[in-house]
Each structure stands twice: as C-alpha cells, then as structure tokens.
Input
Amino acid sequence: MASHSPDQYYVPDSSYYPFACSIALFFIALGGAFLLNDVSAGPTMMGIGFAVMGILLFLWFGSVVKESPEYNMDVDRSFRMGMSWFIFSEVMFFAAFFGALYYLRQLAIPWLAETELLWPGFEASWPSAGPIGAELVTNGDPDAAAVMEGTKYSLIDPLHLPLYNTLLLLTSSVTLTISHHALRDDKRKAAIIWLALTVVLGVVFLVLQAEEYIVAYQIHGLTMGTGVYGSTFFMLTGFHGFHVTLGAFILLVVLLRMMKGHFSGEKHFAFEAGAWYWHFVDVVWVGLFIFVYIL
Output
C-alpha cells in the first residue's frame, strides 16, 4: 500500500483486480451466450465466472477498506461525486422503464384503438393482456376460446402485500436515518441496532416480494406472457427487487464493518453511500406503488 502525506491526494498502488474481473465477466458473458444456444458448457462457465467474480470483489473491496484510513477530504469528495453520478445513472435506468410504461398506457394503446391496426373493435383499456387470441377469434379458429381463457388474469390487490412492502421500505428509511444520526453522535451501539433493523426490514421486503410473485402466478394468473401489462409489471418490480437485494447487501457489509469498529462520527462515507442508495430504492418503490399498483 502506498504511503502519502495527509495533504496529498491518495493514489493506490497498481492492482490486478480490474484485469482479473474483466476475465471473469468474459466467462459470465460467454457462458450466458452458450446457455442461450443450448451449449452444455454454458452453465459451468457462468458458474466459474460468478464464483471468480465474487472472490475478486471480496478481495478488492477488502483492499479498499484497508486503504480508507489514508484517504483525505479530496478523496472523500471524489467518492461522493462518483456515488452521486452512479445514483443518477440508476435514476435514468428506472426513468426509461417508467417512460415505457407511460408510452404504453398513454400513447401506444390509445393509438392502436384509434387506428384498429390489431383488430376491429379493439378498445383502449389498461391493464391490457394484449392481442393474444383476438386474431384467432376474428379468423374463426375453434380453439380461440381456450387461448383467450389462457390470457385471463386478475389484478393484485394494492392494499395487501404491496401496501405492506411500502410500509416496510418507508419504515426502513426512518430506521436508517436514526442509525445515521446515532453514528454521527458516536453512539455506536444504537447505530448498530438501528442499522441491523434496517437490514431485517429489507430482507422481509424481499420475502414478501417473492410471496407476491407466487400469488401472481398461481392465483391471479399474471405472468410475463399476459400481454404488455404482465411484462411491464415483472420488469419494473423485478429490477427493483434486484436493487433492494443489492442495497441490503451493501448495508449488511456496512453493518459488519461498524461492528468491527470501523467509521467515526466524522468519517463514514461508506455508510452514507449505502444510505443514499437505500433511500433511492425507497423512492423508486413509492413510484412503483403509485403507477403500477394503484393507477
């Protein structure tokens, strides 16, 4: 590890981790391509890639943690700028999917109803299961009724599991904020307790999300194949669930570091970065709850 005076910008020693991670990513991508093309080596190659990537990230992040005492305020400022741009990119990521939802609901479906390009008498309504089976009806196919029956589904009650998940995430933002204030006041025990509670709330959210998917498939008949509504529903909620998983993992690592005595009331950027990300995930869920479940 390089040695620097406090007034110098910290520059770490050369590392092989970026190059090794690029090789692991290549194995993951190649294994995925093989898997899509039914090549038997695909799953094994992907497994090796993910395993190597996990080990490398563990070692890489460990070296960053060891270097952190050498960081001065210039490094801290650059980290904050980097995390801010990363969250901005995530905002744009979800903005694209919300934009797709808006386009489908407000532009595409009304236009299709107005032009009747799909079939005569098509009505603009949301949610839409799509044209599956309708063309068969217009063409007089005797199996059309069975196909149409397969596209039927019911909506998930927003005041049940989705509402519970909303309350969980909003509560987790409160507990995380309390933990942050406790850390700033050097009340480490209280900070650890409230942060642990935040992680537990995140895990409970994921459990309820999995239960909701089971209910959607088995009871409501809602799948990726039930038209554009099904695909947008699982696309938005699925990517959000992935981000909650990542955020909970980040906070878990921060919790373990805090239990080992890391951070102080003045220097705790890793905690703040995880908190920014978690609050972002919470805000996205509020948007999902309103525009996907209620409206």
